[in-house]
Design brief:
There is one protein chain. By secondary structure, the chain is mainly alpha-helical. The chain contains 23 helices and 2 strands. It has helices spanning 3-20, 84-87, 110-146, 150-153, 158-186, 188-205, 212-226, 229-238, 246-271, 282-304, 325-338, 353-360, 366-374, 377-384, 386-392, 397-402, 405-425, 429-448, 455-466, 472-483, 486-507, 520-556, 560-569; strands at residues 30-36, 43-49. A two-stranded antiparallel sheet has the order 1-2. Strand 1 (30-36) and strand 2 form a beta hairpin. The longest helix has 37 residues, at 110-146.
Length: 584
Amino acid sequence: MSDDFHKVEAAAVRDRELLTNSPSITEKDEQLVSVDSASSGKELSFEFSLAQHPPKKFYFWQVRGPSGIDLDGIATQYSVFDDPARAKHYQPCADYENLHRFDPAVRWTWREEIALLRKLDIRIMLFVGFMFGALQLDRGNISQANADNFLTDVHLTTNDFNNGNTIFTVCFLLSELPSQLVSKKLGPDRWVPTQMVLWSIVAFSQFWLNGRSSFYATRALLGLLQGGFIADCTLYLSYFYTASELPVRLAYFWAADTLANIIASFMGFGILHMRGVLGYSGWRWLFLIEGIITLIAGILAYGMMLPAPTKSKSWLRGKNGWFSEREEFILVNRILRDDPSKGDMHNRQPINWTNLWYSLSDYDLWPIYVIGFTFFMSTNSVGTYLSLTLRAIGFSTFQTTLMGLPYQVGGLLTMLLVTYSSQRFDERCFHGILSQLWVLPSLIALRSFGSHSNRWSKYAVTSILLSHPSTHAIQVAWTSRNSNSVRSRTVSSAVYNMACQLGGIVTNYIYRSDDAPLYKRGNKDLIAICCMNIVVYLCVKVYYVLRNRFRDRKWNLLSDEEKEHYLATTTDRGNKRLDFRFAH
């Protein structure tokens, strides 16, 4: 028996003791599995966690890996590839772009995995967050423009502004799915930079807005070009991160959105002071300068986004690329061990009409789409009209510009905490209910305020409301997790975002001109929506629990031979497989 085998055996025994003594591992989670040693061809058996959902590894603040785990111990997680009888049913397709780095016998340590995740966060996650921040500059600066008399200068009413927001949202919605399909055919590394360059041109052209028609036109073009960006980035991140890592990285993603808003507040404060420079309003300079920033980011993206984890060599990334051969093996195998469906197709393989319809008609994802449609209705109107509301109750232009900072910082912190909690407890619906329960008392307080109420009290309550723990990142990852195939994931990410945009259209008409500035009727409607959301989350929880119990009963009735026959012959795909369980 070789020395290499003895080393693997010793590491496996050590990890067995650490894992089975962990309080997070229960007796029913432990099963006997086999690990093949690549060096000796021998078989080594040890206990391992086989929870239905991907194993929890470590969290974003733990720089030394899971508590109690030896950094030089084996980090490789058990998967179907360690079971010879099942492995043959989960092999990557012949066109999979990373096939040359796929090897189920590869093992790696926690030290290697932690170092690689840090590199991914710096090389991949950081720039994706930067791109999202650029999107937010161009998507959110319309609210700052409102604080600088934008509506008056362009001769628009509040209802014109509502119509413009609706045009943007409808165009954003309509382009979500086509954009995702284009991204799947060309690759996110080509399509996302192109999107950014095109919309940045439209964004800085708003410098020359002169009336309702030009306002509507730029709103439509921005919606068409920005739609799909978030889903495209989600698909891109799924190439590098496992299902248990993606929610926190998506929280980072939306944290970049919040940080961009904070930075934009300071930028806006300075740029809006340029009112009068060369005879132009401050909001015109705001659109021009922030649009040029996005243009630069889009050009950089052509060189910074990778076609695949194993294709990091380029003129900008260096002739040796970002990852060594060893790191590429770890990258590919850790992703496929976590989710074998990610090897089902090439990342530039288009979705055909049959697969598109199959994904759209996947009724098991519809409950999450319903949540996407309703969950942020209870807060979106308050945030959209914050600038106008603050101006109406007596705050100045520059006070209004900076007064969004407290709730943005608060929202950033609560979002990270709720995402961590969701990951830690592997739970989603109750966290969504928690978010709505945070919002409800503030909405009731806003509804009770009168015209003579203290303006600082109104501002404080509004800030608390908008600091709610957003579950958006959790739900995007949830959609990806419950899709269980690249084909469905490509479409479901877009459809979920379309549902969110449809909800945005509704929220554009909750606050109306005849209800300003207190929006009593609007806040009453928001209270009802918030209560409805709590019921929606509970219903979705029940639905997925019952679906899993139904599959458990069918699967457990099968003999071992029948299970083997099912895996070998089934035509069920993605989340329709009997051996798949839904996250909830």
